[in-house]
């Protein structure tokens, strides 16, 4: 099993490298693989080198991190809520982030301030859902899910209101951000730290996550501190989602389909599922963003549009595969 796991992870690492090199080589300026490698490993001050290092590489790295964070958050949410439809945005994190990001845009601020606004809104939504679900009751996955859905609906109403009263000159940039966009995403040390902490903590909890999937009583009987584990999963998944939304807006389907795809192909052992989800999510978003940059070049599509176009048929195919497996 260990040899097979190592082989799979090495294969996914190779796929990640290939997807990154592919993303660096395509765009409005076609750059060959040799030129990409030369830009990465030499100090030549050529035009191609500047395009690769200053424009494409920061965006590709940011996209890989965002995809990894969303896939990992989705994996954790599905364990936490025991719901196959759970995904990073189910608790209203993206709604809160979107409202505050739009408020920042309406104030005429850009760049760093939009990121700060989105992260602040996401944290407020996280604390709001957590506080409401803790009033007078112990943890209940269904109560958490319903509270998150209602809070998300409230944020959605506020988003519609802000779009309705915003100046026409700002609507385009607002809609682009809401659909998910890596156009202004850059390498962030904070995002890298969050991803590494999330990955390390999730791997540390992997055995407990495996036991939790069999139910609270079984996990508790085998020595798992169920309540503490739930709180840890909740805040870790929320932090990953908040950081991803801060970087790139709301990019759908990554956190929903990637964990299911990995489970079907590799099984439900979180010791393999977690790193495989991170690598696969990063690859998918990097490839989707590359297509978003080139399909109708020189114009760019929001990457969230491409992930939805890819995600819908993939998710329907996954449902069919699950139905076939469960058929007596």
Describe this protein's structure:
The protein is mainly alpha-helical. It has one domain: Orthogonal Bundle (ABC transporter involved in vitamin B12 uptake, BtuC), CATH 1.10.3470. The protein is built from 14 helices and no strands. It has helices at 2-25, 33-41, 47-81, 93-106, 112-134, 141-165, 168-178, 189-204, 206-212, 216-221, 226-248, 254-266, 270-294, 303-326. Helix 1 (2-25) runs parallel beside helix 13 and helix 5 runs antiparallel to helix 6 (141-165). The chain is globular. The two termini are 28 Å apart. The mean pLDDT is 85.
Would you tell me the structural class of the helices and strands? mainly alpha
The appropriate CATH architecture is Orthogonal Bundle
Count of runs of 4 or more consecutive helical residues = 14
In total, how many domains does the architecture comprise?
A: 1
Main sheet overview = none
Assembly state (oligomeric): single chain
Low-confidence stretches: none
Round the mean pLDDT to the nearest integer and report it: 85
Give the terminus-to-terminus CA distance. Answer: 28 Å
- CATH class type: Mainly Alpha
Describe this protein with a few key phrases.
mainly alpha; 14 helices
Briefly characterize the structure:
The chain is mostly helical and 328 residues long. Helices cover 78% and strands 0% of the residues.
What's the topology here?
Elements: H1 2-25, H2 33-41, H3 47-81, H4 93-106, H5 112-134, H6 141-165, H7 168-178, H8 189-204, H9 206-212, H10 216-221, H11 226-248, H12 254-266, H13 270-294, H14 303-326
Helix pairs in contact: 1-3, 1-13, 2-3, 3-8, 3-11, 3-12, 3-13, 4-5, 4-6, 4-7, 4-11, 5-6, 5-11, 8-11, 12-13, 12-14, 13-14
């Amino acid at each position: 099993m260990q040899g097979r796991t190592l082989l799979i992870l090495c294969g996914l690492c190779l796929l990640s490298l290939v997807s990154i090199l592919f993303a660096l080589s395509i765009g409005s300026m076609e750059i060959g693989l040799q030129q990409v490698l030369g830009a990465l490993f030499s100090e030549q001050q050529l035009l191609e080198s500047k395009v690769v290092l200053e424009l494409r590489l920061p965006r590709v790295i940011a996209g890989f991190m965002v995809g990894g964070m969303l896939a990992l958050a989705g994996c954790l949410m599905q364990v936490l809520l025991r719901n196959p439809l759970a995904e990073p945005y189910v608790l209203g994190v993206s709604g809160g982030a979107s409202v505050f990001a739009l408020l920042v845009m309406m104030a005429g601020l850009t760049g760093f301030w939009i990121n700060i606004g989105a992260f602040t809104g996401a944290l407020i939504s996280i604390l709001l859902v957590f506080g409401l679900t803790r009033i007078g009751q112990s943890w209940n996955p269904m109560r958490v899910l319903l509270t998150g859905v209602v809070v998300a609906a409230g944020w959605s109403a506020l988003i519609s209101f802000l779009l309705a009263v915003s100046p026409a000159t700002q609507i385009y940039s607002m809609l682009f951000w809401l659909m998910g966009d890596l156009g202004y995403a850059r390498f962030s040390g904070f995002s890298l730290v969050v991803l590494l902490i999330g990955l390390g903590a999730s791997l540390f909890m992997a055995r407990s996550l495996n036991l939790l999937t069999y139910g609270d009583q079984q996990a508790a009987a085998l020595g798992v501190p169920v309540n503490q584990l739930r709180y840890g999963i909740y805040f870790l998944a929320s932090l990953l989602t908040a950081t991803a939304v801060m970087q790139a807006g709301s990019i759908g389907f990554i956190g929903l389909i990637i964990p299911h795809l990995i489970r079907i192909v590799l099984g439900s052992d979180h010791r393999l599922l977690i790193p495989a989800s991170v690598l696969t999510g990063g690859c998918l978003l990097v490839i989707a963003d590359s297509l978003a940059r080139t399909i109708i070049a020189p114009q760019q599509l929001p990457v969230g549009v491409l992930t939805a176009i890819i995600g819908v048929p993939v998710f329907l195919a996954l449902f069919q595969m699950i139905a076939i497996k469960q058929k007596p």
